[in-house]
Amino acid sequence: MGCRAHAVSALPLRFGDPVKANCSIQRMGYFGIGWEVPLNPPNFTWQGFVVWSVEKMTDWTIKPVCFALSEQGGPCYSNLTLIVYKPPDRVSITFLNHSESLFEGTLQCHVTEVAPAENVLVTFYRGEKMLAQMHLNTSSEKKPVTQSFTLNIVFSKEDTEAQYWCEAKLELGPEGPQHLPVMASQRLFAPQLSCPVELKVTEGKRFPCEVTGNPQPSVTWFKNGQIVAPPSHLNKKDAGNYTIQAKGLFPKNFTVEVKILPATGTANSCCGHFLLLVLLTQMITHV
């Protein structure tokens, strides 16, 4: 005899949210229906449907079962599959096993505190181009876990100018929410210089050159082949050619020619002082 107790087959539910599910009988011959939930007494009724509800779902592994009692043949059962989910707290990316001499390495996407892990889809990107998508092969853990996904890549010299990042999202099927937020990592990028190769700066002004990158690069400045500290406020002796070595996601070398311009108003100020002195001299002479 087939079971005619019908409940929703799968129900995605965010951890901490309320839940309500209905189970009903669709033919004669049954005299009662109810829900069995672990650690709770059966919820039984003589009517043709029964509702099970929880104000706040805090159980990751709960397995409610709807049962119907027939006049002949005993009970039958219909399982409700609850997919209790939690979006990740954080998504981050790192570059592993990267060799400066070889154009290959491993990207690792780190997804923190997500559930269930088997429903996570991770996507790797170079710039806006998708490199790969992947799920966990197998995972029976229903509680939040922290999981790493790795991708081996080979890149060209042009690829060293791109940004690398990953994103993670939960795929909960057609019954689940269709617009869950996608969480993206920070973007990895090679060192970049924030000033032109020929830099003209007024004497006394701050030195505007900075090297940025993610991860934060290690930077060494050279002038005339000697290691120097980048000047904070420029004067005439700071003029010249600089070489910057930056070691970050990829190694980069930059060259900057610094030209120092006279401070604005210096010549006019001297001229003004001279004219004032001449005027005062003439006034004294005529007294």
From TrEMBL:
Pfam families xref list: I-set
Alphabetical list of PROSITE patterns matching this protein: IG_LIKE (PS50835)
BP GO annotations: cell adhesion
Superkingdom field: Eukaryota
Residues of the Ig-like domain: 191-226
GO MF annotation, one: integrin binding
PANTHER family in the record: INTERCELLULAR ADHESION MOLECULE, INTERCELLULAR ADHESION MOLECULE 5
Name of the protein: Ig-like domain-containing protein
